[in-house]
């Protein structure tokens, strides 16, 4: 079982990203369950969604409290939300940010970091800071858990309200290409 | 023999498409496969995306049904009654406050024996204000003569929604059916499902069978829902005939639900316990009882508790109305202690409603089984594996004898 928690703001498509990643996982023959958080989601307000992936049928339909991976599609969210809560030891962070790794406060539980400066790319492609499909590319690059081909097919099956499929496919590619992956060994060293 | 024309499950399964969808979308796709003639809708959280999917399927020409965008839920169900009396296969969905607003025609639907199918995307009661899931709405109307089946997974939502039409329109039932789909965790939870083939579903459902007994039809003039009752003339006996007929239809539904699930398994290769499911119960000393989407986490907790040497099993109710007393008694006969988890509140007895109903079944069993009520998952609260470990441990303690708690345990009180 592999558990992912998405953090974003209402309007950036993090809930939809969870469903698209689940679709891609199902494309690869895995079982996947995506559960959005429930509230009055508004544009700009912090939102969370959850994704479980497994080779076996997934029975529990619950939120995720100890994720293996955190995907944060918004660069400023960490200032208001503890995005690292419950992250497993050696877990993965996939973060939209313009900051270099050494300018970021990363807790000791994090083992792998994938950084993508997603907002300027989104402004280029969509003229709006919609970073969800970019960060799916970043996730694929950082973890190798899913292929770009499966993600492309998942995007093709999705119903985009705010942008076209072509733009989103381009965002996916650029997210993959322009992500820098760092392996951290601090905890092991200590 | 009809069975001679059946394809093997393997052949039928091969035609099924695997997709990822949320519970609300699965329900909408199932409704499209059941080919209703008419749907009426009024959106309300967390049901909204279900009827939006239905409206889109119709707008895109993927579903050939009249859709009525009514001004409120009272009209939604009243419109469908007219449709059903004219012979239409009909469908709607609602929840919480919408169901409350629908109550008058809701009562009338079962009295007129109209086989309308309606999803309740279950939502907790207001007030306090809340838009999240819980079984309070469906539980509140459990005594109104509708069949009510609760689903555990998105796949079960899809399959049960199609089966519901067959149960409702069965000659020996002729009752409205609710599919209860947990708001939030099932309505928005997306998972991998197999989508049955249209021709297979057509063959499974057969011709619709809606208004042979009561109709608005110039060719068959009749009094529909005439004034009856009172204490004179034919009033009392006529009224009793109506009510006894409804009760008989409910009892027949227990048998028909089993038959329909059996046929579904043969045709589509997927089987679900129709009334009561037992999980690791055969060699269990005690059991916990669940309803709806909480069951998955409960089963995971049972597996972990078994690893730790606890002899615990699980009983899940699918068909809550009519209450499956006989099937439940067979399961209860296997255990010496019981913990019942409800996602709603029974205000009168200070316990969960399913717990209260189970006490009635325990009387039929005729042996004292110490039992405890647990209430959790209200208004969208999460019921996780650790919550179920608390249920398992507290229930296990009942095996030692001693006093049985008379107060419910509120599982999310300290979350």
CATH H-tier superfamily of the largest domain in chain B: Thiamin diphosphate (ThDP)-binding fold, Pyr/PP domains
Discrete helix count of chain A? 6
CATH topology of the largest domain in chain B: Rossmann fold
Largest sheet report of chain A: 7 strands, mixed
Helix and strand succession of chain A?
EHEEEEEHHHHEH
What CATH architecture of chain A do you see?
3-Layer(aba) Sandwich
Question: Oligomer, anyone?
Answer: heterodimer
CATH topology of chain A: Pyruvate-ferredoxin Oxidoreductase, domain 3
**Mean model confidence by pLDDT of chain A:** 92
Per DSSP E runs of 2 or more residues, the count of β-strands of chain A stands at 7
Structural class of chain B: alpha/beta
Could you characterize the architecture of this molecule?
The complex is a heterodimer of chains A (190) and B (415). With 190 residues, chain A is α/β, with parallel strands linked by helices. Chain A has one domain (2-183): Pyruvate-ferredoxin Oxidoreductase, domain 3, CATH 3.40.920. Helix content of chain A is 32%, strand content 24%. Chain A has a seven-stranded mixed β-sheet with strand order 2-3-1-4-5-6-7. The mean pLDDT of chain A is 92. Chain A has helices at 14-27, 118-126, 132-143, 148-156, 165-177, 186-189, and strands at 2-9, 31-36, 46-54, 69-72, 91-96, 110-116, 179-183. In chain A, α3 (132-143) runs parallel beside α5 (165-177) and α4 (148-156) packs antiparallel against α5 (165-177). Chain A has six helices and seven strands; from the N terminus they run βαβββββααααβα. Chain B is of the alpha/beta class. Chain B folds into two domains: 9-215 and 242-268, Rossmann fold (3-Layer(aba) Sandwich); 276-410, Rossmann fold, CATH 3.40.50. Chain B has helices spanning 9-14, 23-33, 48-59, 73-85, 96-101, 103-111, 136-140, 154-168, 198-205, 235-268, 295-307, 325-332, 353-365, 385-397; strands at 17-22, 38-41, 66-69, 90-94, 117-122, 147-150, 177-182, 190-195, 276-279, 286-291, 312-317, 319-321, 337-342, 371-375, 409-410. In chain B, the strands form three sheets. In chain B, strands 3-2-4-5-7-6-12 form a seven-stranded mixed β-sheet, sandwiched between helices. In chain B, strands 9-11-10-13-14-15 form a six-stranded mixed β-sheet, with helices on both faces. In chain B, α2 runs parallel beside α8 (154-168), α8 packs across α10 and α12 (325-332) packs across α13. Residues 1-7 of chain B have low confidence and may be disordered.
């Amino acid at each position: 079982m592999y558990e992912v928690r998405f953090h974003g703001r209402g309007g950036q498509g993090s809930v939809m990203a969870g469903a698209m990643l689940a679709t891609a996982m199902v494309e690869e023959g895995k079982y996947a369950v995506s559960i959005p958080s429930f509230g009055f989601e508004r544009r700009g307000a912090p939102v969370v969604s959850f994704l479980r992936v497994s080779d076996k049928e997934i029975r529990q339909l619950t939120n995720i409290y100890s994720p293996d991976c955190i995907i944060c599609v918004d660069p400023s969210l960490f200032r208001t939300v503890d995005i690292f809560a419950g992250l497993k030891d050696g877990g993965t962070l996939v973060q939209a940010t313009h900051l270099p790794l050494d300018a970021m406060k990363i807790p000791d539980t994090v083992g792998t970091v994938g950084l993508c400066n997603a907002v300027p790319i989104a402004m280029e492609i969509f003229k709006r800071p919609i970073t969800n499909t970019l960060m799916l590319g970043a996730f694929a690059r950082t973890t190798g858990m899913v292929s770009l081909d499966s993600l492309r097919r998942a995007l093709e099956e999705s119903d985009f309200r705010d942008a076209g499929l072509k733009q989103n496919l381009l965002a996916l590619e650029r997210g993959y290409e322009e992500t820098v992956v760092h392996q951290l060994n601090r905890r092991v060293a200590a | 023999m009809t069975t001679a024309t059946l394809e093997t499950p393997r052949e039928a399964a091969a035609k099924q498409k695997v997709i990822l969808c949320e519970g609300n979308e699965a329900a909408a796709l199932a409704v499209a496969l059941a080919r209703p003639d008419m749907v009426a809708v009024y959106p309300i959280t967390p049901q909204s995306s279900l009827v939006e999917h239905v409206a889109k399927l119709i707008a895109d020409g993927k579903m050939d049904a009249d859709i009525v965008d009514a001004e409120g839920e009272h009209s939604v169900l009243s419109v469908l009654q007219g449709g059903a009396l004219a012979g239409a296969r009909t469908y709607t969905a609602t929840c919480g406050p919408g169901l409350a607003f629908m109550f008058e025609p809701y009562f009338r639907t079962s009295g007129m024996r109209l086989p309308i199918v309606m999803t309740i995307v279950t939502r907790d009661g207001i007030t306090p204000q809340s838009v999240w899931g819980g079984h309070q709405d469906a539980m509140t109307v459990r005594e109104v003569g509708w069949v009510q089946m609760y689903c555990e997974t998105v796949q079960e939502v899809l399959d049960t929604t199609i089966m519901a039409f067959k149960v409702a329109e069965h000659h020996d039932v002729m009752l409205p059916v609710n599919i209860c789909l947990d708001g939030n965790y099932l309505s928005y939870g997306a998972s991998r499902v197999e989508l049955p083939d249209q021709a297979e579903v057509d063959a499974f459902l057969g011709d619709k069978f809606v208004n042979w007994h009561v109709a608005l039809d110039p060719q068959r003039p009749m009094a529909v829902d005439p004034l009856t009752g009172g204490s004179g003339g034919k009033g009392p006996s006529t009224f009793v005939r109506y009510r006894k007929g409804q009760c008989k239809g409910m009892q027949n539904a227990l048998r028909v639900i089993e038959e329909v699930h059996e046929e579904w398994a043969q045709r589509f290769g997927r089987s679900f316990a129709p009334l009561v499911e037992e999980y690791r119960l055969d060699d269990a000393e005690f059991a916990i009882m669940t309803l709806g989407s909480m069951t998955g986490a409960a089963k995971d907790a049972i597996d972990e508790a078994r690893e730790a040497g606890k002899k615990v099993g699980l009983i899940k109710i699918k068909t809550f109305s009519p209450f499956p007393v006989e099937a439940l008694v067979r399961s209860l006969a296997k255990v010496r202690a019981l913990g019942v988890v409800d996602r709603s509140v029974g205000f009168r007895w200070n316990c969960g409603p399913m717990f209260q109903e189970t006490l009635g079944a325990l009387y039929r069993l005729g042996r004292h089984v110490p039992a405890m009520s647990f209430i959790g998952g209200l208004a969208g609260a999460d019921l996780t594996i650790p919550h179920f470990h608390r249920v398992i441990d507290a229930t296990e303690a009942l095996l030692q004898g001693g006093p049985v708690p008379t107060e419910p345990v509120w599982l999310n009180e300290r979350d």
